[in-house]
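Request: Not sure, any thoughts?
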Amino acid sequence: MSTEIKVVGVIGTGVIGASWTALFLAKGLQVIVSDPAPGAEEKLAAYLKKEWPILERIGLSPKASLSNYKFVSNIDDHLPSVDFVQEVEASYSTQHNAPERTDFKRKLIANVDAKTRPDVIIASSSSGIPSSQFVGDCKQNPGRVLIGHPFNPPHLIPLVEIVPHPGTDDKYTSLAKQFYLSLGKQPVVVKQELPGFIANRLQAAIGNEAYSLVERGIVSAEDLDATVTSGLGLRWALTGPFMVNALGGGGGAAGFKHLLEHLGPGIQAWTADMKAHEFKMSPETIGKLEASVEDMLKSKDVAAVEAQRDEVLVQLMKMKKDDAPALV
């Protein structure tokens, strides 16, 4: 395939698909978008208008324009002209909060495979289903299908997980990585397929322990969040868990080994206790969590939280890029 990607097809315009569209437009690409959900075109236009100012502040490419996208009712006729496909199945469903369905995704990807040029990368934004589970009906070139899973919102958060299936050609993995890098993303190649990939598994592990602590009455939802936002999260935004341990142990690989040997026995004991009190999802336990979350939200302006989160994210990423390259 040509390494120059000018036209991107986006299938699905829920939260993730709309955010991908905003990013592609900000980088000067032409975008063809489709979603059969009622009101999808109007919702996308409103979202792009709302998010464009923050993208202007981050910095637009010379050819960036909100007029560079076309919303189409049926993307099939346009697939032969696209250079890259970003599929967002969960948003493409008429129920925007529906779980991902492998059967639907299998049919959708097979259709995209049949109608695009054989060298066009088909990247699924699946949040946890490996692509080997839905490429079985691809007849033209299943070797160009892979996962391109972003962290929400993709137009602000740099991470994208690239997860090839066993039959994905290495050249398409490499080209996908180059493309995402050109967008200012931080692509991470996951070397083996596994459910949930990397970021969501880490998020699930932390989330399940958080749910257990709140459901058992050990801490409130508000104080649990503060534990992250005023402690762990501040550190993790700058250094990941391996670097944290290396620095905590005195620096370098020797420091990492020292910290693990020093804290390891205690951590194993904590882990055993965590497993013994693993969160079990049920209407009763969810109800306990919901009550604590409701208490937390009484004093919060959710719209302000979202807006200020995005503002600080932009400032933080700019600081890391301009003033702290060692942390990027």
Observations:
- The CA atoms of residues 41 and 71 lie 7 Å apart.
- The longest helix spans residues 252-276.
